[in-house]
Amino acid sequence: MNRIASLGLVLLLAACTGSRQEAKTPAEQGAPPAASAQPPVAPPAPAAEVPPRPDAGVGAELGKDSPEKADAAAPVVPPPASQMAQAAPAAPLMPDAPFRAQPPAPLPEQPRFNPPVPVQRKLKNGARVLIVENHALPLVAVELRFLHGVDADPREKPGLAEFVADMVDEGTRSRPAEKLAEEVEDLAAHLGAGASLETSSVHLNCLTETLPKALELMADVVQNPAFRVEDVERVRVLKLTALEQKKANPGALAADRAAQILYGKDHPWGQPAGGTPESVGSISPADLAAFHARYWVPNDAVISMSGDVKPEEIVALLDAKFASWKSKALPKTPLPPLPKLSRREIVALEKPGTTQAQVWVVGRLFKATDPDAIPMRVANMTLGGLFTSRLNMNLREKHGYSYGVGSSVTLMRRIGTFSARGGIVAQHTVEAVGEYEKELQRFSSGEVTEAELAAAKEALVRGLPSALETNDSVSAAMASLVSLGLPLDYYRTFASRVGKVSRADVRRVARKWVVPSRWPVVIVGPVAQSKNALEELNLGPVFIAPAVPGGKPAAAVP
């Protein structure tokens, strides 16, 4: 290949490569947010002011010699900007500038979001069915939700409910794990399962045309998991690995310790998430099968569907696919009493080497059906539900102690919890705890401004369309209404109920439920050297223990 052809080929490849790289922004390439805002780099000054050659560069014919071979190898240098400006008249930068100068025309009508209310049916085997029709696309999401989860774990086998959920889609009696995975993939479907504190669930997403076959696979997974020894051992290794990795995660360690404080060591919810290495190592296929037989029954289930379906047709299809699934009496699962939170204390787990410390303040609230639920959600938005809420503006914007601190209200069927949490620059842990206390004491007074109240209410209402945007989210949300004991028109009436919340309502619920003087503080990070400083905050006794007892410190994840 001659020199001209070689040069042309190199330039062509470089141009193609450059175009592929330029198609991605810095953020898409994994750069941090700051990198995406870097100013453009100025081009290098030309080596010589040489006028452009019409036969040089990518436009030259490949494979043919140039009449001027001696010049062919010379670098092609663009002219100075001044020469280019003289060569062509300036064109308007924005041909549509007049259009951009005009305000957009008003919409013919204001968009209005009407949250769904599901149609309710019942299968012959006793399972409740909720259906939301959405014919915009030929897609369907199915959430099969059981009303028992971690709460049904035996005291000696924490993690059992989650192990069962992790195993049901790992092969059935008629379909080994690999065959099941292939059949799901052939349908372009998604099928998975999981467990939470009060529920277990199986979720399906598929095309409308493949729904009958996909439901057949889902029914097989729900009714006939095989719990083969080789599959159990494979998943056990994954779960034990996850528990080992958790030792390096301060946030996960903080969540486990907070749960132990709120629920107690003897409560299923007070056990480490996922169980312990000892319990996971001891769970047998027989244990998994027995738990599944007791709690995965239709009379403890709700099947929630959203998508391109019609109620009567889908009920008939579900009855056919789940015909062999029979109801049975559920065992009673009494839970131990919760410990009293009579005094505040600081529980710190020493995690040397981390650049950040997790700081959590946690407390107990009420169940989801309590009349104070909506006012408390509004109140929480002012404290830590928004970027512009008090905690974040204090800890991040004012003091620079954190990338972000927030708070949340989690309400369940039996009880609710509050948490204010965030990752704090380790050297400012003590000061941050003091600022948490200031904001929580201020919040407990219940005093909010009209602007704070308006922003909180607007955020809750305007967040509803995105929270119910997809079939997956709608099917899960409707199932949650049943598992939490809420009315089926909850989302339809949500905006009006939020709109009625007043400053007096916020003041009342905050003063009634927010008690920082009894809410414990949990810290995970390099805090051993800060014990005296923490005690000087006068927030209660300070207890410090190793984050990972009896082992070498794991590599830290801030």
Describe this structure in words.
The chain has 558 residues and is α+β, with helices and mostly antiparallel strands. It has 22 helices and twelve strands. The strands form two sheets. It has a six-stranded mixed β-sheet, sandwiched between helices. The chain has a six-stranded mixed β-sheet with strand order 9-10-8-11-7-12, with helices on both faces. Helix 14 (373-385) packs across helix 21.
Question: What's the topology here?
Answer:
Layout: H1 3-22, H2 33-36, H3 69-72, H4 81-87, H5 97-101, E1 119-122, E2 128-133, E3 139-146, H6 160-167, H7 177-186, E4 190-195, E5 200-207, H8 211-223, H9 229-246, H10 250-263, H11 277-282, H12 285-295, E6 301-307, H13 311-321, E7 346-350, E8 356-364, H14 373-385, H15 390-398, E9 402-411, E10 416-425, H16 429-444, H17 450-462, H18 464-467, H19 471-484, H20 490-499, H21 503-513, E11 521-525, H22 531-535, E12 542-546
Parallel strand pairs: 2-6, 7-11, 7-12
Antiparallel strand pairs: 1-2, 3-5, 3-6, 4-5, 8-10, 8-11, 9-10
